[in-house]
Amino acid sequence: MEQLDDDIEKRLRQLEMDNLRLRAELEARKAGQKASSGMGKFLTQSSTRLLAGRKLKGSVRKLFDELPSGKVSKDTIVDVVVHLVWRITRIGIFAIVAAMGPLLIMMVQTYILNRQNDKLEIQNQLLGRQNDRLDQQINLEEGNRRSSLIFFMSNIMDKIDDEMKGNTARSLSDPLVGRIVSLSQALRPYRYLENDSLTPRQLSPERGQLLFSLINSNLDEKTYDKIFARANFNYADLREANFTDAYLKGAKLADSYFYKANFDRANLDRADLSHAYLEEATFKTTKMDGANLSYANLRKSRMEDISITGGNLAFADMREVYLDGDFRNSNLEGVKVQEATITSVNLEGCYFRSLSWIDSLEFYHLKGLASLREYYEPMKEVDKKGFTSDTLYRLRLDPHSPVMRIVACNHLVEAIMESVEQVKVVKKQQVKEGKPLSLYPVSNPFGLEDLGIKKDSVYLYRLSSDQDDVATTVMWLQFDPKTAALAEIFPGGEAPRKLSFNRNLLQKLNTECQQAQ
Predict the structure, then answer these.
(1) Which of the pair, 11 or 210, is modelled with greater confidence?
(2) Banded model confidence at residue 194, pLDDT cuts 50, 70, 90
C-alpha cells in the first residue's frame, strides 16, 4: 500500500515538473512573438517615417483627427499638401541619385568599349598597312625578277642593231624574232610602287619599253607581222607614248595603259585594244579596221578622220570624245557616248542588240549629228551562229536623209584644200615642230549649229592645231562652190589671195553636191 502511494507521489511530482517546463516554454514563445511583433511594428513605423517623414505623418494624423468633427482647418490641408509635395520631391531626388549609379557604370563601360574599339581599329589599320607592305614587297620582288630580263632585252636590241647594218630590207631573222616573242611572254605584268603606293592595276613597263623600241627600229611590215602574230604586249605601260605613223597591225595590246598617247596616222588594223586605257588619246587619220576596242576607256579622246570599219566598240567608254570617221559595220552595243561630239561619221551597218541604246541617245547631250534616227533607220536582223540565233539591229541610212551628201561634200572640199601646195608646205613645217594641223569647218552651205558651224553659201575652214583657237589660226581658207574659187583670206582686212588646187576634184564635187548648194 505504501509502495502504491510512493508511485503516485512520484507521478504527481513528474507531472508538476512537466507542467512547469511547459509553462516556461509557453512564456518563452509569448515573449518571442511580442519581440517579433515589436520588431515588425518598428520596421513598419521606420519605413513609413522614412517614406512619409515625421512632419507628413503628423500632419496626416492631425487631418484624420479633425475629419470626424467635420472642421478641417485650411492650415491642416496646406500642411498636408506642402509636406506631401516636399516628400515626393525628396524621394524623387533620392531615386534619381540611386539611378545615376547604374547609369554612370554604363557610361564608363561604354567609354571603355569605345576605347577598345578604337584600339581594335588602329590594330586593323596597322594590320592593313602590314599587308600592304607585304604586297609591296612581293610585287617589288617580282619587279626585281623582271629587272633581270632587262639585260636580255638589251642584248636583243644590240642584235637588232647588228642585223640592221647594211640591211636595206629592214627585216629580222626568224631566230631573233623568236627571242623577241619569248621575251614579251616573260615580261609579265605586276603592280609597282608609284608615289609610295602600289599602282591600282597590273602593268608591265618592260613590255611597253620593248614595244616602243621595236616601233622606233623602223622594221619592215612583214617582220612586224611575224612579231605581232605571236608576241604578247598586253598590260603594257605606254602612257603619253608617241606612235605617230607606227605599224601596230594585229598587235595584242589588251589592258594596256595609253593615257594621252598619240596614234596619228598609225596602223591599228585588227589590233586588240580591249579593256585598254586610252583616255585623252589622239587618233588622226588612223587605220583601225577590225580593231577590238570593247570595254576600252576612250574618255576625252579625239578620233579625227579615222577608219574603224568592222570594229568592236561594245561597252566602250566614249564620253566627251570627238568622233569623225568611218565606223561602218562596227559593234556599238552598250557604247557610252554622253556629251560626245559627233561630226562627219558614217555609221552605215553598225549594229547593237537593244533599241533602248539608240533611244537613250536623246538624253546624252550629244553635239553635231546627234539624232541618229533622223539619218539612220535600225533594221532588225537575226544573227545565226551554229545552233543558236540572236536578234540585233543594224543601222541603215535613211534614203531621204541628206547626211551622206553633207559628209561627202565636206570631205571633197577638204580634199581640194589639202591639194593646195601652200597648205602642204605649212602642214609639213608644223609637223616638224611637233604641232600637226587639221582643217576645222567654220561655215558651209548646210550648217551645223551644235558644232558652231554657220550656214553660208561658201565653205570656210581654218587650218590650225587642236590646241589653237580662232586668234591663233595659221590659215583661213574659203571655197565658193558656185564659182569654184579657192582663196586664203586674212582677218586683218587684206585682199584675199587666190590659191591653185587640183581641179580634177571639181567634177566629182559638182556631181555629188549640186543639190546641196
Answers:
(1) 210
(2) low
- CA 231/CA 172 separation, integer angstroms: 15
Cα dihedral angle (84, 85, 87, 88), rounded to 10 degrees? 110
C-alpha grid cell for residue 136?
609591296
Distances (CA, A) of 239 to 106, 132, 262: 58, 25, 10
Report the C-alpha gap between 248 and 243 in whole angstroms.
9
Taking a C-beta distance cutoff of 8 angstroms, is the pair 218, 244 a contact? no
Q: What confidence score (pLDDT) does residue 438 get?
A: 85
Q: What is the mean pLDDT of the chain?
A: 81
Higher pLDDT, 242 or 91: 242
Instruction: Write out the three cell numbers for 252.
Output: 595584242
β-bridge partners, 480? 485
Q: In what order do the strands lie in the sheet with 485-489?
A: 454-455, 438-444, 459-464, 475-480, 485-489, 497-498
H or E element, residue 372: helix 372-375
Is residue 412 within 8 A of residue 512, CB to CB? The reply is: yes
**DSSP classification of residue 334:** T
Give the closest residue to 265 by CA, choosing from 225, 300, 219, 306: 306
In angstroms, the CA 44 to CA 52 distance is: 12
Nearest to 303 by CA among 466, 516, 170: 466
- Residue 434: strand, helix, or coil: coil
| Model confidence pTM above 0.85 | no
Residue, of 455 and 139, whose pLDDT is higher: 455
Q: Domain boundaries in the chain?
A: 2-48, 250-399, 406-513
Burial class (CB in 10 A: 0-12, 13-18, 19+), 353: middle
Instruction: For residue 508, give the C-alpha cell.
Output: 566629182
Written as one string, the DSSP assignment of 272-312 is: B-TT-B-TT-EEES-B-TT-B-TT-B-TT-EEEEEE-TT-B
The architecture in CATH of the region 250-399 reads: 3 Solenoid (2.160)
DSSP 8-state code for residue 212: H
Q: Which residues pair with 498 in a beta bridge?
A: 487
Q: Check residue 516 and give its pLDDT.
A: 46
